């Protein structure tokens, strides 16, 4: 729970599920309950210090010396507040996308959707734009275990900066983001930013 008045509303996930059931769309698909991502799974992308912080911080410990000195470092605060169950939420979101990627890798599904995913702003050691753990990057890393290359297409109005940054120097993942640019969060994603080194022209 991000707090009253916060634009991020996790209950939208439940609403999406209820719409699927009430329109009887669930009869045409398999609904899976994901396993929470383990600490080691999240560490495949995120730094150990950052994951340790997320797994131990709570509203009660927020202002103790150990955690308070990390709030600015990890960009945790107004947009990305600390709330009860924060790490469980991160585990569920990440586990859903990793689990979806596993299904695709095993050819158990042609399409796999994680309604609690898409948290594309989170960086290796930084929360951003309501995103704490980048489930998309973790899902792509899982896909790369089987597939030579992955194409990532982002149609959010905000630039998918966290995903682009994660794969900016590799040609194994092409990131394509259709977003509003200019004086608009997060302020990245210029048309001239196309990747570097092996990843040049693999970011659009």
TrEMBL record:
Gene3D superfamilies in the record: Histone deacetylase domain
Gene Ontology cellular-component annotations: histone deacetylase complex
A GO term for molecular function: histone deacetylase activity, hydrolytic mechanism
InterPro entries: HDAC_I/II (IPR003084), HDACs (IPR000286), His_deacetylse_dom (IPR023801), His_deacetylse_dom_sf (IPR037138), Ureohydrolase_dom_sf (IPR023696)
Source organism superkingdom: Eukaryota
All copies of domain Histone deacetylase, residue ranges: 6-203
Enzyme class (EC, first level): hydrolase
Cofactors named for this entry: Zn(2+)
Pfam families, sorted: Hist_deacetyl
Keywords: Chromatin regulator, Hydrolase, Repressor
Biological processes per GO annotation: epigenetic regulation of gene expression
Reactions catalysed: N(6)-acetyl-L-lysyl-[histone] + H2O = L-lysyl-[histone] + acetate
EC number annotated for this UniProt entry: 3.5.1.98
Coiled-coil segments on the chain, per record: none
Family of the protein in this entry: Belongs to the histone deacetylase family. HD type 1 subfamily.
Name of the featured protein: histone deacetylase
